[in-house]
UniProtKB/TrEMBL annotation:
Homodimer. Keywords: Amino-acid biosynthesis, Cytoplasm, Isomerase, Lysine biosynthesis. Belongs to the diaminopimelate epimerase family. GO terms for cellular component: cytosol. It catalyses: (2S,6S)-2,6-diaminopimelate = meso-2,6-diaminopimelate. GO terms for biological process: lysine biosynthetic process via diaminopimelate. The record marks H166, E215 as: Could be important to modulate the pK values of the two catalytic cysteine residues. This is Diaminopimelate epimerase. Catalyzes the stereoinversion of LL-2,6-diaminopimelate (L,L-DAP) to meso-diaminopimelate (meso-DAP), a precursor of L-lysine. The lineage of its organism: Archaea, Methanobacteriati, Methanobacteriota, Stenosarchaea group, Halobacteria. It is found in: Cytoplasm. Substrate binds at N17, Q78, G88, N89, N197, E215, R216, G226, T227. PANTHER family: DIAMINOPIMELATE EPIMERASE (PTHR31689:SF0), DIAMINOPIMELATE EPIMERASE, CHLOROPLASTIC (PTHR31689).
Length: 288
């Protein structure tokens, strides 16, 4: 492995979903190698000795402050080097990062999945997530039929795209599921030609849901997944577990997110976005 020089980064998290943020004006010639190297949970970078090594991805952000409201172009490179079309918590972090630089409480975020509007209010960031889709071509599925409460590799799942594909399974208690054992076969099932995230959910007893997600690209469970939280509520509405347009709390291990999936219009994802600290990372330009 060869190193050219270093680049400054900031560390953010949204309910435990953590990211290194790099200003796109600072050139990183090989973004996939940079993400694979520094996001590694065993050998990646840490802010200090008490900080967990690595991250769930690197957000390369390009601020375009001349617009009103300001815009930020978001590219999320995941720990395996792939680019994610959308990331709910990543978008909320991108909005917080842009707001720090512009002072605006409204940010437009350009992602591979489309442009999303975010608003900020007293540390809480809410982002439009688009309209969830169950259509086979949107998920996508290797089938002409929607996948609704169908068994796939031992779990009964419903497939929905909330910017990225999710296979959602409702279980009695998320803590009773060995997610690292059951998720990989679903994540790589032939039914999902592009792969899928695997999300499980169980009622929290207060009208909301607990959530755990095995993320494609991370290839493991994360502390929070925003697109997964939206997928839980979208699937719950589709199956009749919930109804109406009121916000619903979804709680991954890292905290609580507020999700609204209206009968018409874009879903909303809200929660905190926290700036943990700053550092410098080696720019990796070649891997052996």
């Amino acid at each position: 492995m060869s190193v050219l020089n270093t680049v400054p980064f900031e560390k953010f998290h949204g309910t435990g979903n953590d990211f290194f943020v790099v200003d796109a004006d600072d050139p990183v010639p090989d973004r996939p190698a940079f993400a694979r190297t520094h996001c590694d949970r065993n050998a990646g970078i840490a802010l200090d000795e008490s900080d967990r090594r690595g991250a769930d991805g690197v957000l390369f952000l390009a601020l375009e402050s001349r617009y009103d409201p300001p815009r930020v172009v978001m590219t999320l490179v995941q720990p395996d080097g792939s680019v994610a079309a959308m990331c709910g918590n990543g978008a909320r972090v991108a909005a917080a990062w842009a707001a720090e630089r512009t002072g605006s409480d409204e940010i437009m975020i350009d992602t591979p999945a489309g442009t999303r509007r975010a608003t900020l209010d007293d540390g809480n960031v809410t982002v439009e997530m688009g309209v969830p889709s169950f259509r086979p071509r949107d998920v996508p599925l290797a089938s002409d039929e929607e996948l609704v409460e169908a068994e796939v590799e031992g779990l009964t799942v419903t497939a929905v795209n909330t910017g990225v594909p999710h296979a959602v399974a409702f279980v009695d208690d998320v803590d009773d599921v060995d997610l690292e054992a059951v998720a990989p076969s679903i994540r790589h099932a032939p039914l999902f030609p592009d792969g899928t995230n695997v999300t499980i959910a169980s009622p929290d007893g207060e009208g909301g849901f607990r959530q755990r997600t095995f993320e494609r690209g991370v290839e493991g469970e994360t502390q929070s997944c925003g697109t997964g939280a939206v997928a839980v509520v979208a699937a719950a509405k589709r199956l009749g577990h919930v109804s109406g347009d009121d916000p619903i709390d979804v709680s991954p291990p890292g905290g609580t997110l507020s999700v609204t999936v209206p009968d018409e219009g874009s879903a909303l994802l809200g929660g905190p976005a926290v700036h943990e600290g700053d550092g410098e990372a080696d720019i990796v330009f070649r891997e052996r």
